[in-house]
Amino acid sequence: MPQPAVSPVAKPIIVTDPIAIREQVRAAQARGRRVGFVPTMGALHEGHTSLVDRAACECDDVAVSIFVNPTQFGPSEDFSRYPRSLESDIAAVAERGARWVFAPEAESIYPPGWATRVEVEGPARRFEGEIRPGHFSGVATVVCRLLLAVPADEAYFGAKDWQQTLVIRRMVRDLGVPTGITVCPTVREPDGLAMSSRNAYLTAAERSRACGLFESLRLAEQGWLAGETVAVIERAMAHHLAERGVTVDYAAIVDRDTLDPLTDETSPAVALVAGRLGMTRLIDNILLPLRR
Length: 292
What we know:
alpha/beta; Rossmann fold; Pantoate--beta-alanine Ligase, Chain: A,domain 2; 2 domains; six-stranded parallel beta sheet; three-stranded antiparallel beta sheet; 10 helices; disordered N terminus
């Protein structure tokens, strides 16, 4: 029996020039179309494609950028070995209906002699800001540049990088960038490990221990709902991570909007963890509700 024909997936328009993508986005908006934007560094997984799905549900057209941003990596970090898979990334977002893939060369984002950076205070100061000096300046600079190139109505980011979402929100607000920011839930593996492009670095033994990050967050949630103090919960988180063989960078409960220490332990908060398994560094978080 003949099989029904399968509709081919429309290929997205591949654009490398910032001026060209800006003109195409503006033209779509002039026709009354709402444009969503998903900035990525490639090596796409289900966390990324869930953002494309959300954008496609809320917008008429979707642009996805694929750009491994050199300015957010420190000198000893993994820029050179960061996974790159442009062809499969394009195929993945094509299946989700993306209209454009913006894949610029570094020279078009950072032209020769470039001398302007975006520095964000406030939520950028602690945690990743302390451990990775210059990281959030690189993030804010590239996101600002991408939002100038792709002047979408709404941009979509994942909650796994909670501190990054606060930095981007602050940058957009402070600079008056006319793009809304939507933060979408973290997508997880069945054992709770947050999906991340860096998970590919883990050995089998490290992967089995990596779920300790999510386990420590669940412990934090349980302790928070049980009324335990922040200090007690943070010690339990760090202890669990160490038991699972994770070298702890931080395990903290802080104000979810500012990342400052809590002045009222009943306020809505966020539990943050970061740690290393071998050569791989992972981060995760979970939002904690108002408690009485």
